[in-house]
Write a structure and sequence with these properties.
Elements lengths: L8 H18 L7 H41 L27 H7 L2 H20 L6
Keywords: Lyase, Membrane, Nucleotide-binding, Transmembrane, Transmembrane helix
Subcellular location: Membrane
GO molecular function, one term: peptide receptor activity
């Protein structure tokens, strides 16, 4: 690079020789043109890309298995494709609830705040049910 900035023409001649010598050392003394090395470089890049795709595909599959496992732990059996045996109850109560002003609350709140509010309400409902013999 320093030779490129030289003002004297004689220094510029050294540049060509220096470049030729370095190019020759890269090619290990073989007389090749850049076009000769292109197929080799493309094969190398192709193999590297194939390896990278294979690694990422394996990582994706592992992550998919982890996600599926987590979902199966969280979901009820009916959602996992398992057969759910019907149960008979002599008495049942169905609870309907209404959050008064929910439309206004949700319009004035961030989605995260609405989700937190609902989560708190359902947690309280579940705590009350857990204190009884109710099945939810």
């Amino acid at each position: 690079v320093m030779l490129c900035w030289a003002q004297a023409p004689s220094s510029m001649d050294k540049l060509g020789f220096s470049f030729h010598r370095q190019f020759k050392s890269i090619n290990q003394g073989n007389k090749t043109s850049p076009a000769d090395s292109m197929p080799r470089m493309l094969q190398k890049y192709s193999r590297n890309l194939e390896d990278l795709v294979r690694e990422r595909t394996e990582e994706l599959e592992l992550e998919r298995q982890r996600t599926e496992s987590l979902l199966f732990q969280m979901l009820p059996p009916s959602k996992m494709g398992a057969t759910v045996e019907p149960e008979h109850f002599d008495q049942v109560t169905i609870y309907f609830s209404d959050v008064v002003g929910f439309t206004i609350i949700s319009a004035l709140s961030e989605p995260v705040e609405v989700a937190a509010l609902l989560n708190t309400l359902y947690t309280l409902f579940h705590a009350v049910l857990a204190a009884t013999t109710c099945i939810r």
